[in-house]
Predict the structure of Regulatory protein.
Amino acid sequence: MARIRVGLLPTASFMVGNMAVPKYADAEKTQFAVDRETGAKLFTVTLFFMEDDRAEALKVTVPETGLPNGLKPGVPVMPVELFATPWARIFNGSLSDGIAYRVERLDLVGGPASAAEAA
């Protein structure tokens, strides 16, 4: 699978849309999905991505180790090491495709939480 590093303009900003939701490795939701290299549990976070005069919602996968304290809806963040992976599959004769987004971590932007973590 080809991972593509996503380049961001200096004007890009991100805001958390929902609390982190665990990813599961099975449809029955009995086994957490984990990072293949580190074994960290994986979570999904919806981010609102704003750049110039456009905005869109991105669902990104984040390892548990990359989730900062204070992460909640409305908080500004900056994704670190953002990658996009195109995917496609055929299920019941129909083609589905899209882009999966993955980050190493989310950094809080500004505010007292960031200053407290830096201390």
